[in-house]
């Protein structure tokens, strides 16, 4: 096994994308094995790699890690993106989980019918602008710093930038009423490792298309 983490997932965003983001923010190179057939998935099941019979799975530091939250927590803690003490860590956890709630709407979006997509798009924008973004705007205003926690880059910042860009793909001016989040986006996007991940040719995945949806449905038998 090489020294690089190896990611097992589909060639698309889904739950693995936040792991790609965090590894990239930490400056960690990684390899990927894309699942394209049911046979690949069943092989992982048969050899016991998927503890709960689910992907994502990340092979790293001699472990085969599953469960997205556990993988992200490990990466954040290992690479000093998880705060300096328990109080900072619980804030990071709170913000990450809030962002996760918003992301969940977007991750399921490609799998909806055309009719449901129209309804869900309005719901995503309403949730982002009415529930989630106001929280982070208030946090940034309250402490006057460039980062959400401890005035240094953390997992919470990386996760929020990912979510902001995902919502902007649905509505480009979604931050128009949030000046501090606009500044936050510019600041976090300019960090060298993150800037590199945002450039063409990186391992960042595009907006999920029909091919991605069909592959996931086929491999997981979602019919």
Automatic annotation (TrEMBL):
**InterPro entries named in the record:** Glutathione-S-Trfase_C-like, Glutathione-S-Trfase_C_sf, Glutathione_S-Trfase, Glutathione_S-Trfase_N, GST_alpha, GST_C, GST_superfamily, Thioredoxin-like_sf
Top EC class per UniProt? transferase
SUPFAM superfamilies xrefs: GST C-terminal domain-like, Thioredoxin-like
Annotated ranges, domain GST N-terminal: 3-83
Task: Output the GO biological process annotations, alphabetical, semicolon-separated.
Answer: glutathione metabolic process; xenobiotic metabolic process
Q: Which GO terms describe its molecular function?
A: glutathione transferase activity
Q: Which UniProt keywords apply?
A: Transferase
Pfam families xref list? GST_C_3, GST_N
Keyword Transferase in record: yes
Q: What is its EC number?
A: 2.5.1.18
List the CDD domains hit by this protein, alphabetically: GST_C_Alpha
- Domain GST C-terminal per the UniProt entry, residue ranges: 85-209
What PANTHER family does its record include? GLUTATHIONE S-TRANSFERASE, GLUTATHIONE S-TRANSFERASE A4
Family membership, please give it.
Answer: Belongs to the GST superfamily. Alpha family.
The protein's name in its UniProt record: glutathione transferase
